[in-house]
Amino acid sequence: MKVAFIVPSLQNLGPTIVVNTIIKHLCYNGVETSVYYFDESEAMDFICPVYKIVNNSPIDFDSFDIIHSNMYRPDKYVYHWKHRIRKAKIVTTIHQDIFRNLRYNYNCIISVCFTPLWIKYIKKFDRKIFISNTIKNLYSFENSLVIHNGIDIEYDSQSADQLYVEKIWKLKQHGYTLLGTYAAINRGKGIDQLIELARIRKDLGIVIIGNGKEKHALQLLARRYNVNEQILFLPYLQSPYNYLQHIDIYVMPSRNEGFGLAMIEAAMVGVPVICSNIPIFHEIFNENQAVFFDLENIGSLSEAVNIILSKYKYYKDSIYSYVMNHFTGEIMAKKYLNLYNSIVD
């Protein structure tokens, strides 16, 4: 079997990480894979051939059995050239609530204009794969199914940049319990709630890893609340989970999320997790594995910290065991391979 994956870029972001994970396991199972992309960026390493799409020109679609598209530009590209595809089956993965994701990453105008277009493209695919039932229930696409994300981490704390490790330890030496989070920072990630928490909890330090359009606003908020000494902002870091051994609790305070891959990574490192009380997170974990807090309720977030600290080993062990049995890359890739085989057959 031959499978072509099309992604916006090779940047180390959630959808591309998922694609890379699938590819590794497909290759181990003898599937021939290739990756096609549009935008130049700092690239992830792939174990298969990688090609840049130039001037929106068509690839040799029918030299593949499956064309697997991910995100808006690839979906639009496959839709545009669909009339040229005779043999290959076309598949797309929907990684988020399209309307809300566009709103948080861009603005309401972009969301209103582009959501109907994107849905129009998706409807023409042979299979539509959702990464959660929460997202699937928002749409009424035919020939759709759910495959939860999975991840394989190459945990190596020795590869962490010692400059940033020292900064984390300097914060920890103040006696703080450290909460950590990492993301492409926008308002939908809800990280401002952690800064609000630092304002009322002087026993907590917050480590925020990542860049994004809301980062400067968060830095201003930390200064306004006079909690600078409790907050450590770090830039985008490759394999940020390698820094989590120095963190006590991972927090995912998202207002909107497609899945929540970062908290799966944190759990695999052995860090207990607090997450916001949104449907997608309840689909991934239950109250025995993670502690939930009510969005925009800083008191609830503070209490979640207390609950984790009161049963720290229980939550650490429970979530680790659960993710290793449900959300590994091997488990996810096997489901994709079964899907591809069923389509080709």
From TrEMBL:
Top-rank EC class of the record's enzyme: transferase
A Pfam family recorded for this sequence: Glyco_transf_4
EC numbers for this chain: 2.4.-.-
Domain Glycosyl transferase family: start-end pairs: 172-317
UniProt cross-references to Gene3D superfamilies, sorted A to Z: Glycogen Phosphorylase B (3.40.50.2000)
Molecular functions per Gene Ontology: glycosyltransferase activity
Glycosyltransferase subfamily 4-like N-terminal domain mapped to chain residues: 63-154
InterPro entries tied to this protein: Glyco_trans_1 (IPR001296), Glyco_trans_4-like_N (IPR028098)
Keywords (A to Z) from UniProt: Glycosyltransferase, Transferase
PANTHER family the record matches: GLYCOSYLTRANSFERASE
Full protein name: Glycosyltransferase
Organism from which the protein derives: Bacteroides muris (ex Fokt et al. 2023)
Lineage: Bacteria, Pseudomonadati, Bacteroidota, Bacteroidia, Bacteroidales
